[in-house]
Each structure stands twice: as structure tokens, then as C-alpha cells.
């Protein structure tokens, strides 16, 4: 995964990147919850270019908004379309790649790819917590070693949702097929936070990963919109 990956139980990067699966790199996404009765017609913080990348079929959108282009701290919000507008879930603290964000991701650049990507597959070292996504429970998600700030990586891949960047949707997150080639990076996941920046993934607390896995519904065609705030506002 472009994060410390889990093969052979040691931390490594999964090189491979593909062009945005659902859209292209893009704009801002803030996330403040509103009562359902006030659900906005458009997701707050997303500019026209970013909104244009979101598939018309998407009824669940995870918006990950970075503080700025070079920041590795961000926030995530799951939005659900109610029929009249977009209802926001809670704001979840998140981490992203060490050097921030990029709209031209390459393996080893230590930046998370900006864009809109489908969310089709999940997995983890731990048993399925109750997701409706296909879930691959595998020892291949075991990871060891330490992160950029000396924090242990063990447990980072207990729960994973694959972000469909340079991968084949409908396969395990562990699948190494990279349609754009290994040099474009890949293995970009939503996974459990290890209390430090990632190599390219987005991380949430273990509880929030469980909540996300239980909420995502393939029938609602979920996508993730991710990037720094200024880019997402475009």
C-alpha cells in the first residue's frame, strides 16, 4: 500500500498508482455536521471541478480534507445523500502522507493522491466488523516496524478500505495489480491510525474505521474525495 504495507509482516511501500478511478485530482472538502432537515444541496467545501468528478450514482461520499498542501493532518466526514441534500456524519480526525498531498502521485513521493476514487473493497487482519463491502480477512495484513515518528505500526491494517487508485476494483486490497504501472504508486488505503503520518494512505482511529466499514454500502456507490482544502475548493 503506499503506506507501510503488510507483506511478510514487515513495513514496506506498495508502489503503484493509477489515475483517479472515479474522478480526477481536485478540490476542497470541509466537514461540519448539520441536522438532516438542513442537509445542503451540495457538499460543503467542494468546488465545481471537484464536484464534477463525483459520479452521479454516488450516494455516499467520504470527504478527507487536509489542512494545507504540505500538511499530514486532516479530517474526514462521511456524507450520505438523503434525496434532498447531503447529510454529514461526525468529523473524524485523520492523518495522511508525511509530505502532504499531490495531484501527480508517484511511488515513494510520500504524498497522498488528490482526487475522487471509488471504494469497492475492504479487508483486514481482524474479522469482518459487519461491512457490506467484500471483506478479505487475511494474515497478509499483519505489519510490524515503526513509523516516521517512531510509533509502532502493528495493528495499522486491522481494518482497511482500499481506495481505488491504481488498482483493480473488485479485488482484495492486497492485490498488487497496478494498471498504471508500479512507478505510479498504489496500495492507497483507509486504515487504522498508528499515531503518525503515512506513506500515502489516510488513517482513522480504530473505532472510526469500524464505524466507516459498517456504514459503507456498495448499493450507494461510495467514493472518497480527498486532498488539501485549497485544492478541493477548486
From TrEMBL:
- Comp. bias (Low complexity): 16-37
Q: Does the keyword Lipoprotein apply?
A: yes
Q: Where is the L,D-TPase catalytic domain?
A: 107-225
Q: Where do the segments described as Disordered lie? A: 1-48
Which keywords are on file for this protein?
Answer: Lipoprotein
Q: Which InterPro entries match?
A: LD_TPept_cat_dom (IPR005490)
Entry-linked Pfam families:
YkuD
Q: Give the GO molecular function terms.
A: transferase activity
- What is the name listed in the Swiss-Prot or TrEMBL entry for this protein? Lipoprotein
Q: Which organism is it from?
A: Streptomyces gancidicus BKS 13-15
Amino acid at each position: 500500500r503506499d503506506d507501510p504495507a503488510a507483506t511478510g509482516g514487515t513495513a514496506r511501500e506498495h508502489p503503484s498508482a493509477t489515475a483517479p478511478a472515479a474522478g480526477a485530482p481536485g478540490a476542497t472538502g470541509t466537514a461540519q455536521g448539520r441536522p438532516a432537515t438542513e442537509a445542503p444541496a451540495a457538499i460543503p467545501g467542494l468546488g465545481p471541478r471537484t464536484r464534477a468528478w463525483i459520479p452521479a450514482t454516488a450516494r455516499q461520499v467520504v470527504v478527507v480534507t487536509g489542512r494545507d498542501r504540505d500538511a499530514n493532518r486532516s479530517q474526514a466526514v462521511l456524507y450520505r445523500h438523503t434525496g434532498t441534500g447531503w447529510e454529514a456524519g461526525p468529523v473524524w480526525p485523520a492523518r495522511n502522507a508525511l509530505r502532504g498531498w499531490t495531484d501527480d502521485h508517484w511511488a515513494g513521493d510520500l504524498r497522498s493522491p488528490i482526487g475522487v476514487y471509488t471504494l469497492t473493497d475492504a479487508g483486514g487482519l481482524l474479522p469482518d466488523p459487519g461491512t457490506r463491502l467484500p471483506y478479505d480477512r487475511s494474515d497478509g495484513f499483519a505489519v510490524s516496524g515503526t513509523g516516521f515518528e517512531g510509533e509502532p505500526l502493528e495493528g495499522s491494517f486491522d481494518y482497511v478500505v482500499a481506495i481505488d487508485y491504481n488498482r483493480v476494483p473488485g479485488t482484495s486490497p492486497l492485490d498488487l495489480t497496478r494498471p498504471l504501472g508500479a512507478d505510479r504508486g498504489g496500495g492507497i488505503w483507509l486504515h487504522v491510525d498508528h499515531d503518525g503520518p503515512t506513506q500515502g494512505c489516510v488513517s482513522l482511529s480504530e473505532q472510526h474505521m469500524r464505524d466507516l466499514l459498517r456504514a459503507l454500502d456498495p448499493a450507494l456507490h461510495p467514493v472518497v474525495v480527498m486532498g488539501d482544502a485549497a485544492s478541493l475548493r477548486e
